[in-house]
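Lab meeting, item 3. Inverse folding demo.
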């Protein structure tokens, strides 16, 4: 006799097989949002500026690919 663990409904089975990944795509993080969150965490303008540039570069690579 099968244990309760193996009696999964079809909906639950697919959710466990996918590893819990959502079907919607990952949301974009804008450079300004990244800078705001860094400024909030650290309180440093220098770190926020660095984060802004880093995220802007990352988003540009996503859009246009690496050169």
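The presenter then showed the designed sequence:
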């Amino acid at each position: 006799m099968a244990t309760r663990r193996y009696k999964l409904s079809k909906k639950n089975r697919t959710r466990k097989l996918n590893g819990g990944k959502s079907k919607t795509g990952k949301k974009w993080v804008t450079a300004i949002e990244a800078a705001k969150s860094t400024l909030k965490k650290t309180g440093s303008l220098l770190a926020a500026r660095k984060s802004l540039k880093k995220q802007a570069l990352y988003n540009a690579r996503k859009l246009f690919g690496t050169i």
